[in-house]
Amino acid sequence: MLFLLSYVLAHPFSTDEYSLRSSVQVTKKGVSMLVAMEVPIPRALKEIGAKKEESKRVKQKKIDAYTKKQWKLLGDSLSYSIDGIPQKGEWFPIDDPSNGKAAEGFFVYLITFKAKKKPKLKEDSVIELINSAYPEEKMVYSASVYDSDTWAVKSSSANDVLGENQFAPITSEERWTRDEKLRNLKFTIQKPQKK
């Protein structure tokens, strides 16, 4: 999953915009996904509702409750399918020191998916990740789909919108877009080409 994390850094746009980033790789073990959401710090602090006069312990409890709420909201807002068949499993927060923490103007929330069973994949399987979190908010998007030794990307909405910029450094403006086509990620896999 390390390849998916790249750098857990904020997007390079204004700090009043949410962001959604999806990274996916299909391997012989299945579909590895990371979905990252960044919530602007002022918005998060307002929703957390911590007050200056409260103890550090009380403030931390409020932050922890808000973090769990964001992980749940993001997980409940995600679904994914293979060849039109919804995949069963659980979205859960990844174990990373930056997860649920504030950095560079945003609180960052990172989740991944654990399937109930190994997915059935074949040549030309179409995988779709649907993200309906915060549909009313101004947002920037990024997505990337990585080849593996087992499966290669034949086509993807990330490539359609970002091209090779989907692999640019996470802090690069070219890696991000306001194009809502990347709210959802759709791609087709194939066997790697022989070299």
Folded structure, characterized:
The structure is a single chain. With about 200 residues, this protein is of the alpha+beta class. The chain has one domain. It has four helices and eleven strands. Strands 1, 2, 5, 6, 7 and 9 form a six-stranded mixed beta sheet that branches. A hairpin with a 2-residue loop joins β1 and β2. The longest helix is centred in the middle third of the chain and has 21 residues. It is globular, with a radius of gyration of 17 Å.
Helix content: 10-25%
SSE ordering: HEEHHEEEEEEEEHE
**What average pLDDT do the residues reach?**
90
- Major sheet details: 6 strands, mixed
Shape: globular
Keywords:
195 residues; 6-stranded mixed beta sheet; 5-stranded antiparallel beta sheet; alpha+beta; disordered N terminus
Topology, element by element:
Blueprint: H1 2-5, E1 18-27, E2 30-40, H2 41-48, H3 56-76, E3 78-82, E4 85-86, E5 89-93, E6 102-103, E7 106-115, E8 126-131, E9 139-146, E10 152-156, H4 157-162, E11 185-190
Parallel strand pairs: 1-9
Antiparallel strand pairs: 1-2, 2-7, 3-4, 3-8, 5-7, 6-7, 8-11, 10-11
Gist of the model:
The chain is of the alpha+beta class and 195 residues long. The protein has helices at residues 2-5, 41-48, 56-76, 157-162; strands spanning 18-27, 30-40, 78-82, 85-86, 89-93, 102-103, 106-115, 126-131, 139-146, 152-156, 185-190.
